[in-house]
Design brief:
The complex is a heterodimer of chains A (285) and B (224). Chain A is of the alpha/beta class and 285 residues long. Chain A has ten helices and 15 strands. In chain A, a hairpin with a 4-residue loop joins strand 12 and strand 13. The two termini of chain A are 37 Å apart. Chain B is mainly alpha-helical. Chain B is built from eight helices and no strands. In chain B, helix 4 (87-119) runs antiparallel to helix 8 (195-221) and helix 5 (126-157) packs parallel to helix 8. The chains are: A alpha/beta (285), B mainly alpha (224).
Chain lengths: 285, 224
């Protein structure tokens, strides 16, 4: 069963369109959503959460259609934005009291446990917390009502490497229960390389690819070559290339299979960053 | 919805106690005036105090507006609708908050007036009693209508400059009418003018009633 299924979601703005976006997050997996700034990641997350009026498409969460009146479905969803969207004058203890009246399954003990792990004082007002602490508080809230699906919009943005690593560990810990799933958007692709099972790449409002991370990292190859090899390479299925001063750089989605064919060329496994750059800046036939 | 109300109660707690203290002070003054002014003139004195309580009530209702601004600025609105909270729950919570605030303040006033009237040596003539009741109902209704209109218009236009501007335009006729009324009361000319605020209040009440269902529709269509 898919934890989240996004079907042909479309949202039109004057200067930007989220265009027929479809992909799914299998139960028990982490889906990383990547793309440059303005690619449509946050718009897509808002469309999934029904915070914007979609021009088309549907979103299913655990097999049930999700819209803005699906209160029961949202009991199972924890959301963390890039900043903590609570009033600055509230403290964690007050948020717990509010959340206990909002969520049927609010677990005060679990919340206190997370506050302890994150070294958050329950009486410290939000305005006194650092960015990293605010994000941890947001995650503590999302994890304390027995959510099965976490939707995280740039949760590690603006954090130092230690804080980022702490958060990634928390997400991996959350995934110990195999019924749980995460959709996480980030432009810090190294974070996703650590934790994601699947990657969906959005560019200019369209899904360019949605694949398992292993497929991307083990099947894709980057070839650096001269013009004579390039003429042949660019005809390969799905090839994307960039021309540098004296050489070409070609991304081959089926590169692993082609290693023997182009044994004279320098072939490397690309990072997700490199794949993203090639798709954004490269040319295609 | 309970969570939303709890959040507003927590955030307004400090302002609320300040306003309650002010309201108690005004209610003591009103009750005291009714008790100590042993003539029909007591109603005129109370009317002037009623204007102060109208201003206070309007300020109290501005607390509801304050919660909108805070919700929008902090991003709480978007956050709330990722939780098991329907758009309609949010609007309902704001109406309930407005009514709760009005209820508390009206209650304190009623106690003040009741004590003043009960302890008075000479009972007030029935026409003076009627006038007193009309003044308070109009003041109370006026303040409540202003907050109800604000709730509706916020859902449509948000808490930005445009939203504030439109809210001011809509409530301006009521505020101007009450200002004129205040000036006439000051000239002891209340009998002449009681009909004007009553009509404006009634008209505004009609507009407010129309806006209530619209506020739910606008909330459904809003994007965050």
């Amino acid at each position: 069963m898919d934890a989240l299924e996004i079907k042909n979601v479309t949202k039109k703005y004057t200067k930007f369109t989220l265009d027929n976006v479809s992909f799914s997050v299998p139960q028990g997996s982490i889906m990383g959503l990547i793309g440059e700034n303005g690619a449509g990641k946050s718009t897509l997350i808002k469309a999934v959460l029904d915070l914007v009026n979609k021009d088309g498409g549907e979103v299913d969460i655990y097999g049930k259609k999700h819209d803005r009146n699906s209160k029961d479905i949202r009991e199972d969803v924890g959301v963390v934005f890039d900043t903590l969207h609570y009033h600055e004058n509230l403290n964690p203890m007050q948020i717990s009291k509010i959340s206990a009246l909002t969520y049927k399954n609010w677990d005060e003990k679990a919340f206190s446990h997370y506050l302890e792990i994150f070294k958050l004082n329950e009486k410290s007002k939000i305005k006194t917390l650092s960015k990293g602490m605010k994000m941890k508080l947001g995650i503590a809230i999302a994890l304390s009502h027995d959510a099965k699906l976490l939707i995280l919009d740039e949760p590690t943005a603006g954090l130092d490497p230690v804080a980022r690593d702490d958060l990634l560990d928390i997400f991996l810990d959350f995934m110990q229960d195999e019924t749980r799933s995460i959709l996480i958007s980030s432009h810090i692709t190294t974070d996703l390389e650590k934790i994601a099972d699947y990657i969906t790449f959005i560019h200019e409002g369209k899904v360019l690819l949605s694949k398992s991370k292993d497929e991307l990292l083990y099947d894709y190859r980057i070839v650096r070559c001269g013009e004579s090899d390039f003429i042949e390479l660019k005809e390969e299925e799905g090839a994307v290339w960039r021309k540098h001063d004296y050489q070409y750089e070609v991304l081959l989605p089926t590169g692993k299979k082609l290693e023997s064919k182009y044994s004279s060329c320098e072939m490397e496994r690309p990072t997700i960053d490199e794949i993203m750059l090639m798709y954004i800046k490269g040319e295609r036939s | 919805m309970k969570g939303l109300l709890k959040k507003d109660h927590i955030l307004l707690r400090d302002y609320f106690f300040l306003f309650v203290m002010l309201d108690i002070a005004i209610s003591v003054m009103i009750g005291g005036t009714l008790l100590l002014t042993q003539s029909e003139k007591a109603v005129m004195d109370v009317s002037r105090l009623a204007i102060i309580s109208y201003v206070l009530l309007t300020m109290v209702q501005s607390l509801v507006n304050q919660t909108f601004n805070d919700d929008e600025k902090s991003g709480f609105l978007a956050n709330a609708f990722t939780q098991p909270v329907a758009r309609g729950d949010y609007v309902k919570a704001k109406y309930i908050l407005a009514l709760q605030l009005t209820g508390v303040f009206a209650g304190i006033h009623t106690i003040g007036i009741f004590i003043g009237l009960v302890l008075r040596k000479e009972p007030l003539p029935s026409d003076a009693m009627m006038l007193l009741a009309e003044i308070f109902i109009i003041a109370l209704a006026g303040a409540t209508i202003i907050s109800f209109n604000s709730i509706s218009l916020f859902m449509k236009f948000g808490a930005g400059k445009k939203g504030i501007g439109i809210r001011l335009i809509v409530v301006a006729p009521m505020i101007i009418t009450y200002l004129i009324w205040t000036m006439n009361i000051a000239r002891d000319n209340i009998e002449l003018n009681i009909s004007l605020p009553a009509i404006v209040t009634l008209l505004s009440f009609g507009v407010s009633l129309l806006l209530v269902p619209m506020s739910f529709k606008w909330a459904e269509r809003r994007e965050f």
